[in-house]
């Protein structure tokens, strides 16, 4: 696990999203790591991050992912048909700003 997901765990901070039964997030530099524990549908909508822009989204050690980002900052990720790991698939969101400076979402 450490070799696979170490980048998304070691030296990171938690947040900016509060964890739940479906996902949790970590962050380091300009990257936000979304750890998906359970795929309940074909998309995952994340809480709004006003003023934050995504450059790209991709699976850690994998393919690019489709996403939309509304004007208010709400992000919707489009899952592939099969996620690489049924226990924890990591999606990387590369941002145009430092993810560590984003306040924790309420």
Present the secondary structure layout:
Layout (H helix, E strand, L loop, with lengths): L1 H4 L7 E2 L8 E6 L2 E6 L6 E4 L7 E6 L6 E4 L5 E4 L10 E7 L11
Antiparallel strand pairs: 1-2, 2-3, 3-8, 4-7, 5-8, 6-7
What's the gist of this structure?
This protein is mainly β.
Structural class given helices, strands, pairing? mainly beta
Helical percent range? Answer: under 10%
Spatial sequence of strands, sheet with the most strands: 1-2-3-8-5
Total helical segments: 1
Can you put this structure into words, describing what you see?
It is built from 1 helix and 8 strands. By secondary structure, the protein is mainly β. The mean pLDDT is 90.
Please describe the structure with a list of short key phrases separated by commas or semicolons.
five-stranded antiparallel beta sheet, mainly beta, single chain, 1 helix, 106 residues, three-stranded antiparallel beta sheet, 8 strands
């Amino acid at each position: 696990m450490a070799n696979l997901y170490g980048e998304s765990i070691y030296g990171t901070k938690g947040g900016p999203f509060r964890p739940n039964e479906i996902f949790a997030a970590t962050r380091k530099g300009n990257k936000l790591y979304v750890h998906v524990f359970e795929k309940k549908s074909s998309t995952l909508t994340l809480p709004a991050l006003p003023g934050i822009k995504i450059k790209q989204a991709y699976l850690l050690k994998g393919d690019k992912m489709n996403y939309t980002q509304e004007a208010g900052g709400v992000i919707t990720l489009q899952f592939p048909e099969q996620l690489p790991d049924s226990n924890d698939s990591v999606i990387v969101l590369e941002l145009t700003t430092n993810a560590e400076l984003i306040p924790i979402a309420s």
